[in-house]
Known about the structure:
The protein has helices spanning 2-7, 12-19, 23-32, 39-48, 55-60, 74-119. The chain is an all-alpha fold. The chain folds into two domains: 1-72, 434 Repressor (Amino-terminal Domain), CATH 1.10.260; 74-125. Helix 2 crosses helix 3 and helix 2 packs across helix 4 (39-48). The protein is elongated, with a radius of gyration of 24 Å.
Amino acid sequence: MEQARLEQGLSKHDLARLARVARPTISRLINHGMVPSRAATLDRIGSALGWEAGTCAALLAGQPLPGPRAPVTRSAQLVAARLTEIAEEARSAAGAAEQSILRLKTIEERARAAAQFVLGGSVAD
């Protein structure tokens, strides 16, 4: 992994940013062999190095690096990292929207119940 990082001219900070992991995660992995527990973290690191999903885990398990793959340019890595950030922002916004929907439904139910209470009977929908 360290060799691949150096061959691509990436600092540990660059690799961490591209992989969307904390720099200490990269340092612990490269310097101390402390493997992140989540497969997704390993896949993000591998992806930042231009590898297919599962390659990082396979290498750490002692398997050889798969055959050569077309080199991924730094520009492509930066674009991929930004697109992934956009996807994460969209997922976060979708979660916030779902929470807003639940709040609005609660407001609707309470408003209908209050209207029914005020009128002393049922309220037509």
